[in-house]
Amino acid sequence: MRQLIHRGGVLTAALLLLAITRSLSAEVTFVFTFFDVTTSTGRGFDDPVLGAERRAALEAVGAEIGARIGQTSTIEIGVAPSETDGTGPIGIGAATFLDTTPGVRDGEVYRRIVLGEPDTDAGLDAGIVFDFGYDVSLSGTPAPGVACFRDVARHELTHVLGYGSFIKADGTGFNETAPDMYTRFDAMLETDSGDGEGLPVIDSDGNLLLDAPTFAAAHGIGLVFDGTASRAANSGLPIKTFGSDPTHSAAMSDVMFPSPAVGTMRADWTDKDVAIL
């Protein structure tokens, strides 16, 4: 499943998409299609014992997030047949991209929610998948050694909303070409200078702005996400991403840290999670 989108606000500042206080007139509705159910897999979201509770937990997180977004839209998300072997990622979330030509491009979720554009494609706006081979709690604080499914769901739906990168270790993007296709999130990434004066990584035409050795070094230690909201949430500095994986946060307290919390909960976004959205 492709790794997502982002909403960095017109390439100049992180777009604060989320209204922290609920709007009475604006709400995003997430409609989930559970392929476990439609294809009768008998596992995951179609499990005869836990399937209904799992579906309800994901839908509850989607409803809570949708109620906090200061826009009105309906987003259709395909929930792929569940994994059950517990060997891969516990979850993957991605928006659909219809335009993959070189440049900074918008996924369907960004286009529908932020730009207010109509649905021009009969396909799904995004997709997610979960691996139920891991021990997860569907509600409440999990026991030691157990992850919180709702935390994982929030993490993957945040990817769907636009928290994510196409930048690979060699600096190429979605197509592995030069120039290439990148996300709005990518357009907000810079090298980590330590003082907030880092170098931008790509331009709006999809050109990599750093030479190969400079990019490799910067990518290896971790890029930073720069924008007005992100600096406000991080003592005036850009927000550090996770090592060589700019799709995730470097801070363990953030929902967007790459590993789920175990034996505890990340019950809500941190200020830094929200600032990047």
Largest beta sheet: strand ordering? 1-2-5-3
Major sheet summary line:
4 strands, mixed
User: Low-confidence stretches at least 5 residues in length (pLDDT < 50)?
Assistant: 1-23
Report the radius of gyration as a whole number of Å: 18 Å
Separate helix tally:
8
**Helix vs. strand class:** alpha/beta
End-to-end C-alpha gap = 21 Å
Beta-strand percentage range:
15-25%
What is the chain-wise order of helices and strands? EHHEEEHEEEHEHEHEHEEH
Helix percent reads 10-25%
How many strands? Answer: 12
- Count of spatially separate domains: 1
Nearest-integer average pLDDT = 91
Shape: globular
Task: Spell out the blueprint of helices and strands.
Blueprint: E1 28-34, H1 35-38, H2 51-66, E2 73-79, E3 91-95, E4 103-105, H3 108-113, E5 126-130, E6 136-137, E7 147-148, H4 149-161, E8 181-183, H5 184-187, E9 189-190, H6 212-221, E10 224-225, H7 228-233, E11 239-242, E12 245-249, H8 271-276
Parallel strand pairs: 1-2, 2-5, 4-8, 6-7
Antiparallel strand pairs: 3-5, 9-10, 10-11, 11-12
